[in-house]
Amino acid sequence: MRRTLFIFLITALIVFGAYRWWQLHHRAHTSGHGAEQYTPADGPRIDPKDVQMLTALDAEYTQLVQAVIPSVVSITTERHLPTQGPGVLDPLQFFLRNHRLPGPQDQVQISLGSGVIVSHEGHIITNHHVLAGKDKIEVQLTDGRTLPAQLIASDEQTDIAIVKITADNIEPLLLGDSDNVRVGQMVFAVGNPFGLQESVTRGIISAKGRRAVADSGVEFFQTDAVVNQGNSGGPLINLRGEIIGINSAIANSKQGTWIGISFAIPSNIAKHALESVLKTGHIVRNYLGVKMVDVTPEYAHLLNLSTLQGVIVAEVLPGSPADKAGLQTGDVIHSVNGHPVHDKFMVRSQIAEADLHAKVQVSIVRSGHEQTVVVDVDEAPVGLDTKPTPIP
User: Fold this and answer.
1) Would you call 232 a catalytic residue per the annotation?
2) For each successive 10 residues of the chain (392 residues), what is the average pLDDT?
3) Do the beta carbons of residue 262 and residue 248 sit within 8 Å?
4) Do 252 and 320 sit in the same domain of this protein?
5) Is 159 a catalytic site residue?
6) Does one domain contain both 187 and 233?
7) Partner of 203 for a Cys bridge, out of 48, 79, 168, 225, CB 3.0 to 4.6 A?
8) Which of 71, 74, 111, 129 is catalytic?
9) Given 155, 159, 331, 378, the catalytic residue
């Protein structure tokens, strides 16, 4: 009995070993010595003829992007920050100073931004905050050329700056009319986010007339096109490849990244800045010469106004265009050049877009009677603070 059991166990072990050898040998043969079987799909699941409109739209997007990208540039800036050396009484600093030896080297802060070429002569529009306080400016074109740039003019209030490069074979983009921009229209944001060149995002105009997102006296377009760090100064493009805005800011987030709300300066503001630079050599800041407050229910009751539309003239600066035109404290401005205004930012925006010394018609209500005064827009005196009070 014991011998039979022993023979059975030996036979079972031999059979199991043979099976395992066969299994391992077969697996090695199929995986290591033979080609893995692979049968790809026969073709795309969708026939392009069935999505002709989408195919055409895709081709048109590509054509638009390829047309505008060569005009968008990357801007690299440097700022030299003095290194904090030893104290005044430190013997090493005393020795270096007296022997005129080099002390600690300055730290170099490098920043990235975007810009757009707007003339064959090499004028580039970007943001003031991209260049503010910088010691060196370089522009990189999409063909790889890196060129030094000269700062022509910069304005903190409008957050617009103009630089210029000297280069051949550059193609400018046309500045469109931002007054024709409509909420809901499709737009493209082009720029250099996070140092990634030639990046394009698509969205729509979400709203017009946004303000107080920066210390600026102009209104902004709001868009849901993705804009991140490094996009500042790049163009917002319409379907015709025209510049309708300059990307400038995003809604605040803890990480400093895009959360669905971006802002662009209307192209007419940028166009006015460029034209004033070409005519005068600097960015002209128009001003009306009044201090204004918005119409609130309380003010409307005190002044016996029938509507909350418009802004109230709180003070007229002596000698200003408003003073010369006869505007008075207590006047309620209803429209500027036919454009209804609902707050003081809209008044500033209309004045900012006007040509220097243009005759601007201002519709007002005075003592319950409507009338129109004509204001000769003038340049704001140097040092005049025309910026609005930031909203916390």
Assistant:
1) yes
2) 63 66 59 72 86 90 92 88 54 53 62 92 94 88 92 88 94 93 94 79 88 59 86 93 92 67 90 88 84 87 83 91 92 90 82 84 89 90 51 24
3) no
4) no
5) yes
6) yes
7) 225
8) 129
9) 159
